């Protein structure tokens, strides 16, 4: 019972917070009968400021949102939630906080067993996958484990960037870093979907659809031992659930 909306980013250039995906977000929650969303702000340090920003955006969508950090009983809040939104920021901080508060398993159960809709952006999208090994973030804190929620049996690299032939930067590209992840011997590393800006995944049960608002700027799939492959808007990626 998977109902997931996983965005690569929260903001596109010159746009407002979540503006580029506003119609998709509204449809995702309303079609699933959700009017009140529990916000998980732990990828940022200032939870109050983060809630204000997100709450303003969701109010424009006609949706009520409240942050779990203000809850008197966080576990009860998760058990009663109609839907979740996990925002972006630092993925290591997000995961460590959820482990420290013993909330990770509770969120997993609500989404997997009860079919509660889950929306993630950036770090929140990383959290929905096997582990956070393919995040772009710095390990500013040390989580108990790098294992994440595991709603999907593959990893995602949000904000995926292609090499710029005009750049003077000589460091590793995103593709190089993902190949390093797949290059560790005697380790079964899952596929990695490089999700470009303006792209998202819509997941319902056993179907994964790749969506996006920028033509020809969608996703690049990395599978260990295979040549990376491009996937365009409206591609069906459900085959990744069986790998």
UniProtKB/TrEMBL annotation:
Location(s), subcellular: Cytoplasm
UniProt main location, coarse: cytoplasm
Gene3D superfamilies, A to Z: 3.40.50.880
Alphabetical keyword list: Cytoplasm, Dipeptidase, Hydrolase, Protease, Serine protease
Keyword Methyltransferase part of the UniProt annotation: no
GO cellular component: cytoplasm
UniProt EC number: 3.4.13.21
Reactions catalysed, as given in the entry: Dipeptidase E catalyzes the hydrolysis of dipeptides Asp-|-Xaa. It does not act on peptides with N-terminal Glu, Asn or Gln, nor does it cleave isoaspartyl peptides
Top-level class of the enzyme under EC nomenclature: hydrolase
Molecular function GO terms recorded: dipeptidase activity; serine-type peptidase activity
An individual GO BP term: proteolysis
Role this protein plays: Hydrolyzes dipeptides containing N-terminal aspartate residues.
Family stated for the protein in its record: Belongs to the peptidase S51 family.
Protein name: dipeptidase E
Organism: Daphnia magna
């Amino acid at each position: 019972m998977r109902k997931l909306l996983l965005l690569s980013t929260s903001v596109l250039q010159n746009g407002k917070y979540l503006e580029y995906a506003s119609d998709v977000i509204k449809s995702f929650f309303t079609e699933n009968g959700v009017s009140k969303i529990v916000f998980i702000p732990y990828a940022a340090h200032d939870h109050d400021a983060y809630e204000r920003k997100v709450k303003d955006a969701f109010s424009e969508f006609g949706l009520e949102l409240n942050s779990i950090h203000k809850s008197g009983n966080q576990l009860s809040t998760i058990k009663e939630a109609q839907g979740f939104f996990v925002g972006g920021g630092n993925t290591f901080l997000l995961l460590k906080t959820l482990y420290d508060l013993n909330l990770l398993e509770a969120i997993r159960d609500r989404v997997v067993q009860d079919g509660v809709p889950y929306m993630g952006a950036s770090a929140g999208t990383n959290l929905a996958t096997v582990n956070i090994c393919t995040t772009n973030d710095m390990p500013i804190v040390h989580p108990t484990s790098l294992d994440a929620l595991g709603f999907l049996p593959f990893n995602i690299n949000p904000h995926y960037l292609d090499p710029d032939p005009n750049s003077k930067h000589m460091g590793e590209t995103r593709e190089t870093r993902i190949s390093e992840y797949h290059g560790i011997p005697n380790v079964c590393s899952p596929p990695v979907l490089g999700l470009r800006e303006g792209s998202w995944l819509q997941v319902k049960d056993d179907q994964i659809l790749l969506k996006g608002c920028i033509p020809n700027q969608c996703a690049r799939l990395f599978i260990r031992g295979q040549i990376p492959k491009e996937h365009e808007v409206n591609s069906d990626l459900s085959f990744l659930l069986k790998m």
